[in-house]
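Database export, one record per block. Field names are fixed; values are copied verbatim from the stored entry.
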Amino acid sequence: MATSSPRASDRDQKKGDGLLNRAVKVLRVVSTYPNGIGLSELARLAEVPKASCFRIISTLEDEGILFTDEDTKRTRISIGALSIVGGLLTEGGTLRAIRDILSDLSEASGETTGFDMLQGSDVVVLMQNAGPSIIGQTLKQTPRIQPPWLTSTGKSLLSYRDPDEVRALLLPHYPQDNLNQLDLFIESLEPARVHGYAWLYGALERDAASVAAPVLIDEVPKYALWIGGPTYRITPENARQLGQLAIDAATKVARLLTALREVQGLNDPISASSIGIGF
């Protein structure tokens, strides 16, 4: 009786694990597009070869998990399978997914990352993920409140607002003996909006720098993702590269929150109170 060798079994196991991993990636992306997504974009976002992505879609369609519209060629989760993958489109599932995105962003950037929102005239740090270079250091507690003019997330979140509105929001809280710096902050908002990310150097702490990108829902910045670290690692030379990493991660979060909003029917799918924060 013929038996497979241990080496062949290991190869088969690794091949199966690879296919399963790709299928999970495809499902994660499709689940954030309630109206469906095209094959090319799905393959790109899932980071799966197009041919493999097509085979995964075909298999999952045969199993009744995915459905592809013949007219639009867009693939979405089938009605019958929502109970299987619908856990992602709950508040708890989405928060876990955001933490995963922060973890991936820390790995890609080598720095600590976080997820913030603007509440009134304050930036609220909702989540953060320690970067690989923070060994031996202690992360600041979350949640925490920070002045928006001292953070790249504040700059990013305010960059879509009218300058006069920003001035009226911040003026009552800004140090009155340094108002010329408020003017400079407001002038820096337009470049941040144009570039898609904000960069701040030595503001909150003299030796710290950060970049941040807004999470746009219907073109409105509801939240922001940031990358933070020491000024000798986050520099003018690599700020653009880190900014693009933040933009890509913020886009992923925006898709998740848009899908969650459509399921829940809420304007703000994630709030400070939903993460157990009260002010």
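Remark 1: The beta strands are 66-68, 75-77, 112-119, 122-129, 144-146, 198-201, 208-217, 220-230.
Remark 2: The chain has ten helices and eight strands.
End of record.
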